[in-house]
Amino acid sequence: VSAAPSAFSDEKGGSASEPEYGHDPASGGIFSSDYKRHDDLKEMLDSNKDSLKLEAMKRIVADPNQLIRASALRVLSSIRVTIIVPIMMLAIKEAASDMSPYVRKTAAHAIPKLHSLDPEQKDQLIEVIEKLLADKTTLVAGSVVMAFEEVCPDRIDLIHKNYRKLCNLLIDVEEWGQVVIINMLTRYARTQFLNPNINESLLEENSEKAFYASDDEEEEDKKAEPATLAKRKPYVMDPDHRLLLRNTKPLLQSRNAAVVMAVAQLYFHLAPKAEVGIIAKALVRLMRSHSEVQYVVLQNVATMSIKRRGMFEPYLKSFYIRSTDPTQIKVLKLEVLTNLANETNISTILREFQTYIKSMDKDFVAASIQAIGRCATNIGEVRDTCLNGLVQLLSNRDELVVAESVVVIKKLLQMQPEQHSDIIKHMAKLIDNIQVPMARASILWLIGEYCEHVPKIAPDVLRKMAKSFTNEEDIVKLQIINLAAKLYLTNSKQSKLLTQYVLNLAKYDQNYDIRDRARFIRQLIVPTDKSGALSKYAKKLFLALKPAPVLESPFKDRDHFQLGSLSHLLNAKAAGYQELPNWPESAPDPSVRNVEIPDWSKCSSRKDRKEKKVEKPFYSDSEGESGPTESADSESDSGSGSASASGSDESGSGSESEESGEETESDEEEEDEEEEKKKRKKLDKTKAKKQCIINFDQFDMNKITSVFSQTLAPSGSIKMYELLHRIKGEGLAVEYCFSRQPFSPEPNMVAVQIQFTNNTNSETKNLHIEDPRLQSGMRIREFAEIDVLAAGESVTVVMGIDFCDSTQAANFQLCTHTRKFFVSIQPPVGELMTPAFLTENDFKKEQGKLMGMNEILEKLTLGEKCVNEHVIVERVTATANLSRVPCGSDKECRFAGKTVSSGCLVLVTVTTKEGGGAQLTVNCEKMLIGTMLVKDILQALSQ
Amino acid sequence: MLAAAKMIHSLFLVNASGDIFLEKHWKSVVSRSVCDYFFEALERATEPENVPPVIPTPHHFLINVLRHRIYFVAVIQSEVPPLFVIEFLHRVVDTFQDYFGVCSEAAIKDNVVVVYELLEEMLDNGFPLATESNILKELIKPPTILRTVVNTITGSTNVGEQLPTGQLSVVPWRRTGVKYTNNEAYFDVVEEIDAIIDKSGSTITAEIQGVIDACVKLTGMPDLTLSFMNPRLLDDVSFHPCVRFKRWEAERILSFIPPDGNFRLLSYHVSSQNLVAIPVYVKHNISFREGSSQGRFELTLGPKQTMGKAVESVLVSSQLPRGVLNANLSPSQGTYTFDPVTKLLSWDVGKINPQKLPSLKGSVSLQTGASKPDENPTINIQFKIQQLAISGLKVNRLDMYGEKYKPFKGIKYMTKAGKFQVRT
Prior knowledge:
heterodimer, A: 943 residues, six-stranded antiparallel β-sheet, 41 helices, 15 strands, globular, B: 424 residues, alpha+beta, nine-stranded mixed β-sheet, 23 strands, cytoplasmic vesicle (chain B)
């Protein structure tokens, strides 16, 4: 009983035994603030009678004002006394069914507090979490997921039913909640979906291996290879997986760096390789932020740039170092630059590194020298250039610079010593001047190791070293012994006495490591009758060929930690870190995420309902009640997840406005979109009617690939063209289509998706492109070679072609391990463009600029089926990759795009007239494109 | 007991001389001694900004940010995204700045009660609760002289008498019932050029980063749309949460219900494919001779690609090599200072007159006997150009819906140097 009074004063301060609590005058700030206005309550609370106090608390929990209820719960849950646990539990349960979302949010916040106070309550709390997870308001979502993460992060089963809702609410959740939800969903997705890069992972590893190959990794691959091969089949992304990627993408535009990072790590861990690139721009943007943000972002970029170098290559210059950057930022940028170095950009990078070496910041100079060393080991072509540059640094005035260069040169020389005996000689001369122990040790090691290349100098160096032995640092002493031993073995005539002298000195050294080493070496190299069999092999032992060191990034393989996490940053597992699970071998049942439709429509009805039942906890009882009328009017929405999602967003926020009486913010723009969607949906209606359950599977994958294409892509599926017929290809059938996705590695290329199907009974190997014959200016970016395509399997790859805005065919040879086939891809003119987003005004303005020769007018009679605007839109967008431009008149449809290669605007206007007549206008600077486009659209519309 | 996972456990504020002058604990008290690890890191760091932002200690993790010469050190017990904490700490600083005008040790000590009230509201059990300035201002009134006096006499606090509604409204960033007699909306388009110019004057890298800062004082619930003449210039954007993303994606129009008062509407990056105009050039001749204790130093600035606008508030600074003892220079205009301790040379040029280019000439003396410095100093330049957005971005129009009155609208453009460096 006596515990409680102190509890109130201690609510934020923890146990009374901690005296420093007094530093915190505002603890209980909320307490004093909100109860000032309720003096009677405050008195009751301040009184010393326990029962009275609890009575007061109970009253507060039932206060008519939601803010008072919320604050009361906040205070109650901050009391850290076990006696209060049952009451707290009761209050949380009560609040979790409160009609005010703000109070429910507070309930979610209280859960971890109670859990840490009494972990025994876990099961009951999980029930509350389960209930709150079903909540549909954005206000609650972030807080309850936070509670979930702290109390029961392993209960992934609780997420299934709420997964789609969380994805759809995400954009409207407050920013801190977004971070928590995205991180949780990343883990969830890793347990529920298949690896989207499963077919590419092999290729990717092989191609990236050139850089940071290590032996054990290769071994792992070998083991993994047969397993993956056996399983390989065409990968189809789960629509829920796509939903997550699509709904998180806009958040890359958040002003909150933590949100951007959360999305970036989600894409890195979950997205198909071709799509990961979009995060680079946002991450580079964060580098403009505070230096602490830069520091964390660069750490993550460093890890990412090892796995996905191409992603950051276009932003190489953003990582250039300024003299005003703090050293820790400089070093990280250097790391990224080194990771990004390849054959094509190395000369630019080395030129940049040269200016860094002149910096006044010596730690940074040392790091730059190491970076040069790494570039030199990784890129063979520049090894000699780097080596020469480093040798020049040996005459630098700064000793640290020289020392660092020596260490790096030593590593480089180990790769090809025979060509560089002059450098070794040069280094031998340096030993007189250089004092940095590590550098001296490195030089001695080099001379010893390659004493055969410098037979005259080596004994002399040993002589000098023997003189100065007693004054050297320990690492240098060890290397002197080492050098002596090696010389004794190769040139005992000149160095026998010197070696014995050195070994005698070492015998009486203060450091036992050195004494030990001397004893060991003496036994090994100086044959006595006592020495064992080993001394016969002394030469082999000392002068064995040593493998060259691999200079690798400290960020290699850090991505086994979830990016953006504290553990990743520290490269050590922090308490409470949740491992990122490996992708499952086969996908768990996706139907667990299906939700009954009434659940979705219930939101919209809540507004009407709340007026009638205000006091009742409406979550629990409204669950089963949704009337048939409500679901009827939401029927048309139910076809697509995205449409119902935005529907629930709006109504969700509407329901939060109970007290303030605000109307839902009127989003005209969304209405437009909504209409579009509805129209599209009519086509799917037949399908939608069949099922009462939202099933994303019914949607063509291509339609939901991105937020934009969703409204733009024609509802008909994308047309496939044949590249190689099954018979001609001797069982190998190849089809291609224009996926209309931006080709991320090169934005001015057209993405061509190619599907290989192996209809033979045996494996086809080494599928790749050879000998492209292209018109001048055209370029082609081949897909990575497909190692093996098992019998009966098919695989899809994407390649990019820059058609130079012409319909000239791209000819090339498709090669397998046995055969070569001549094939060609000729694009329809409509595929040479990408959608452009213009407003009506912009459209008119641009159209005004493209008059005269650039405008083509054509009259036409609309085909029988072109009855309404919708069909026209569909036909035009099917013919050409254009986007719809908003337009005031219903007689006109406007479309805009720009050519992929040169970015020229393409504007299309279709004006309908009474009686099936219409006029088509195309404005484009490239007249040839315009003419061809007119022809194609005319054909499409008059069918 | 479980390792109670909460995001931010405690916060310590450390001043430039390494004293903890404020601490706040959201749950149990963590002893001040945890900061010893921070002080160790501080000692190891050569420069104040080289303290690692994340420092592991045996039982905790310290995440710190440095702003206004104050370290904000958060104590974390378990896994949490570091950026989450860093971003939050910066938000705390922004809030202090918003409330007290400046975020200095003195200002924090003067307003210690408000500071604690704010921290209490911003985090609940270590998880961010109310970080939106509009909501906070309803909960806790910013101090004014009058209110401070009244509070001292009556013993009341700054805690609002009204219950806040912001958190519950559909537009959480805007409070309801805003009233102004003069309705006005001002937008500042500010662009910064980040550039590295090499020795010969050619551009190594140049980018334009811009922001649109708004000061909106409008009655009621106005719904604004802002459109650009050339929205496609904007390559990468990030928005205040009030901006409707879908509308931007579809039409490239900014549509939003603004927060009340000052806020950053948009930050953007201008696509690096466009050539960036470099408004100033520097002619330099800095040389040290072997064996001589004198070095030559000559700088001339001139305008270049300024679209006919004047380049103002030019400030040149440069970190000279350690071997430099003193500088004996004469500027053709403005004043220069050289700090022999930090070796920082700064020259306040003022406005560049294209007819008479500003120059700074003279000699620098080197330590006798010291060898010639390996490196030449980098020159950092700051400048401003009024009424110009160097990217060419232009606001087309600003419209208001949802309210009847006619607001006063204003748009201002400015170009500044961001991180603008010339290598010599």
